[in-house]
Amino acid sequence: MKRPGPLLTLLAGLLLAVFILTLDSTTGTRSASSTYEKPSSAKSPSAKPSPSAAVTSPSPAPKRSAAPAGVYTGRTDDDSSAVAVSLRGGKAIAYFCDGHNIESWLKGDVKGAGVMRLTGADGARLNGTLKGGGKLTGTADVGGGHYAFTLDRAKKPSGIYRANSQVAGARIVGGWIVLPGGRQVGIVTRDGKPAAAPAIDPETGAVTVDGQRLTARPVTP
Amino acid sequence: MTVDPNAATQSFPPEPARRAPGPARYLVPALVAGAVAVALGVYGRTHDPSGIAFNLAGFSSTGAVKSWLASTAFFFALVQLVSALMVYGRLPGPRWSATLHRWSGRIAFLVAVPVAVHCLYALGYQTYSTRVMWHSALGCFFFGAFSAKMLLLRSERLPAALLPLVGGLVLTALTLIWLTSAFWFFRTFGVTT
Q1: Residues B61-113: pLDDT tens digits?
Q2: CA of A181, closest CA in chain B: separation in Å?
Q3: Which of B48, B54, B152 would you mutate first to test chain A, the one with the most A CBs within 10 A?
Q4: Distance of alpha carbon A196 from alpha carbon A153, whole angstroms
């Protein structure tokens, strides 16, 4: 055996990687389910994964295997707006956004066969059905319009992002849909007045609104 | 016959006749390097990025943790460059410069591993911007090139230019990785912990 040093170095790196991967796949998921519970809470997700946090939140493991989970993104059939639906633990949150002035946040339950009827403010509705092959089809009634859509299962950083803040006394709510390929559709609402949103960095969620740096967080039910 | 105990880059004299210098000593590191780089890339591409991972206490975000770890690795990589020049006699250095080179390299590598694991596990191999594309590709390349460097070290009588060349590639890759990640992070978000 010649000089084991370099091999031991590689082996140590490999073991370390496996060790961290194990930590990630056990601890990381728990901390996520306990911090991303509500999209409206602008809490920092950097909370440390602690055993107590895992106890207070419903254990994700058994539910997740049964209920569909993941993010579906796409555009409406008339190409006017973007739609994204995030599923987890039998619940769904959807964001509908045309990037100018029509947007809606909707939520509801997912029934056994992947059927969901979501509702939002001002009578907004979204009906969707999970199809095979990573598709989700449905219709949405938002802002007086009726839209049909087919969404594809998306990978991060595609998905729904949301930011809440106060800037210069105005209440700011931003919503973004990051589509596969990096295209974004978003609206920032200042004291209830919607306008096109500046782009976020999908990797970190960083965005500058009216000169103030905000962090948009991924939205999951 | 005297054997210099510090002659770390050579094997013991009685051995060299045993294995004729064949193509295997280049081929094996090259194949391993390719396999490592491709495997990392394929994993990053196919694994559904979790977006999250466990966070170290005391840091505001995983981005900050990674940036500091990556900067630590980059610092030790600079030590690598200096100590390598010492080992090759291009710079005046102490007798323990070979040890310094070995251990700074180990530390740099081991510090970079958690960063890479987080990248691949939580973010995946992405191409949505030039910076991200280069970072993803070079990240995979780096661990391949590093594996090759480690395996090459086990061979004796390599062409004199080979180790510095591969080492330089590893260092260049790490520098570009750092510029496209930690440096970008600190410039975008400020130097935060």
Answers
A1: 777 888 889 999 999 999 999 999 998 888 888 888 889 999 999 999 999 99
A2: 6
A3: B54
A4: 25
* Model confidence pLDDT, tens digit, residues A188-204: 888 778 888 888 888 88
The residue of chain B nearest to residue A203, with distances taken between CA atoms, is B123
| Residue A44 CA to its chain's centroid (Å) | 15
Domain boundaries A68-154, corresponding CATH code = 2.40.160.90
Gap from A145 CA to chain B (nearest CA, Å): 32
What's the one-letter identity of residue B120?
L
Indicate the domain borders of chain A: 5-56, 68-154, 159-218
Q: Which residues of B touch A12 (CB under 8 A)?
A: 106, 110
- Please give the backbone phi and psi of residue A71, each rounded to the nearest 5 degrees, phi first: -120, 135
ipTM summary value:
0.78
Q: Work out how many CB contacts closer than 8 A connect A with B.
A: 107
Q: Which amino acid is at A5?
A: G
For residues A217 and A38, the answer to whether their CB atoms sit within 8 Å is: no
Going from N- to C-terminal start, the domains of chain B cover 24-47+60-189
